[in-house]
Amino acid sequence: MSGQRIPAPVAATDPSQDAALPDYVLALKDRLAYLPEDQTERVVRAFRVGAHAHAGQARKSGEPYITHPVAVAGILAELGLDAETIIAAILHDTLEDTQLSRIELAAEFGETVAELVDGVTKLDKMKFGSRQEADAESFRKMLLAMARDIRVILIKLADRLHNMRTLGAKDTSSRRRISRETLEIYAPIAQRLGMNKFKAELQDLGFRGLHPDRYRVISERIRAALGNRREAMGKIEAALTQRLASEHIEARVVGRIKSPWSIYSKMRSEHKTFAQLMDVYGFRVVVDTAMRCYMALGAVHTLYKPVDRRFKDFIAIPKANGYQSLHTVLLGPFGAPIEVQIRTAEMDSVAERGVAAHWAYKTDSGPANSAQARAREWLSALADSQANTASSSEFIENVKIDLFPDEVYLFTPRGDILSLPRNATALDFAYAVHTDVGHHAVAARVDKKLVPLRTRLESGQLVEIITAPSAVPNPAWLESVVTGKARTAIRQFLKHLQHEDAVDFGHRMLDRALDALGSSLDGIAPAVLDRFLAEAKLHRLEELLADIALGNRMPDVVAAQLVAARGKKAARTVATTAPSSEKIRITGAERGVLSFANCCHPLPGDEIVGYLSAGKGIVVHREECPNVAELRKQPERRVSIEWDRDVQGDYRAELRIEVINRPGVLATVASAIADADSNIENVEYVERDAAAATLLFTMEVKSRRHLAEVIRRVRRTGVVSAAHRYPL
């Protein structure tokens, strides 16, 4: 990029200031009537600079390229945004596609405009391993710029909206790729920011680009259906207006029409036919105050009967994106439901424009509306998430999770309201309260009933998290959570835990190997150790120890190299080193370093042996495991281990059971296993003949002794002819 060049005198290369402006720029000036004249002139100046920078460039449609950024600025002008945003919109592609540098941009229009343009600029000129990685990193950069200044995403959404409006010039594969990205990322972001007007148009344009035939068929059927029901809608609208007027409530009543995308997505998700979805009349009632919203609700409920359990109060409990409205469903005069939304003009503006409603952008002052306040909270959480996420792809995955279209609204014991994505669990709630609460959570009380952390929550529930100082996250938690915040926090903790376990285990393995050579880690001079680490390109001893535990370096080889580096010959070479008779004891809590072989399912109480596997750490086998014979051919990978007296956790075991084949036998055996305090993970039922069958249970037990107790209980059922551990 040309960002390091000395600023050029931009004005000197511009066309004459007196040059006639094109009609599309004059139209933009008309839309900017809300700005002071000097600000409008700055916008015109930005057009001249942008037109000169993009000179000779054309869109796929053949139009001059500058028409696109001016159209983007026009979309933002309709929202009433400030001059800096409009200027940045006109210049948003200059850093990426022209010779104009960031220094020149800042010198001419100020640092804020340069920041906004830089935030929108993609990273295509950097080298990445793949297109997906480039897209992920580009999107991550944009979101972080958006966290600093929300105007970045407003420009990006307007840019995407105009590109979608003019998508016809692209080839089929590009149309499908851009449309899918719009539906998966940009439309949900618009919804998350409360910009429902943008969201609806992006969804319909994305639908048209991805599935043109389906879009055409549904659009035609909507037009036909509306033609048939126009009279009915007019009667309902007149009745609603008359009833509100009789109650002295000034209101504007407008009929609502479902969009092609909303019809299509509901047909798929709710398994409904087109006729079922269109057999609903929708109206919006706009009044002047929140109090009159509730008065209007009472009035419409006296006109038509409300449908039970179909009322939602988003005024008292706003959605996560700041949306406020009363929703009710009434039984109409034609036997079809009537959906009514009741809101104030202010709420209507926020519902349509979200963060861009009543724009008053001042970073020092409070946000101008509730949508802006909630958007800043969300963006702040995104910034925290990316700081703890190394991979761009993982960060984007977390963002996508947080863009759920539906939320559940939950109460804390203090009466605060938290909004979480649909299907969120009590564990997600714990992390939403505070990361430390999540890390130490053990259970939850939902509406005063004790429930497991994996319990899914529903709107309106009162949730209290029970914590214990000794509790810590475990890998299984990642399967229970849906929010990006919870997932990032758990992964971060587990990585830290794995590193600590690996350092401790690697220390013990290296000490044992050095002991076999008549030395110890304490006996290696710091200077020798530092030199060894430098040659190995490691920064700290902890990295070396973790590498050993994770199987990336052999402890015997490292020990021999350290002793040799000390200037003394090892008493024995690595190949002939007699291993220390002392075994390393494991408690089972070292799950970041240890894994237990699926071929033999070792349990506490078994004679065990460990084998180093690169990147995985130590894989634990039973001594009698058939695979151990093959592993003995690589003695340098062997790690002598044994169970500690204090063993923790549950371990997987398999039980092969021969049973009499008759009804209820599976339930009888499963009940016996459960009575022995064992959790069943899986059952395979293989019928051998009419009289007998074989059951293969996968379960969790605490030790070899616990498994023996399970087998005893199973044998006592009277339906079992044989039961034994599998494999033997």
From TrEMBL:
Pathway the protein acts in: Purine metabolism; ppGpp biosynthesis; ppGpp from GDP: step 1/1
EC numbers: 3.1.7.2
Record's keyword terms, sorted: Hydrolase
Enzyme class: hydrolase
KW Hydrolase (keyword) present: yes
SMART domains: HDc (SM00471), RelA_SpoT (SM00954)
Lineage: superkingdom: Bacteria
Ranges for domain ACT: 654-728
Keyword Amino-acid biosynthesis on entry: no
Transmembrane segments: none
Domain (HD): residue spans on this chain: 65-164
Segments forming domain TGS: 406-467
Catalytic activity: guanosine 3',5'-bis(diphosphate) + H2O = GDP + diphosphate + H(+)
Role this protein plays: In eubacteria ppGpp (guanosine 3'-diphosphate 5'-diphosphate) is a mediator of the stringent response that coordinates a variety of cellular activities in response to changes in nutritional abundance.
Protein family (similarity comment): Belongs to the relA/spoT family.
Protein name, as recorded: guanosine-3',5'-bis(diphosphate) 3'-diphosphatase
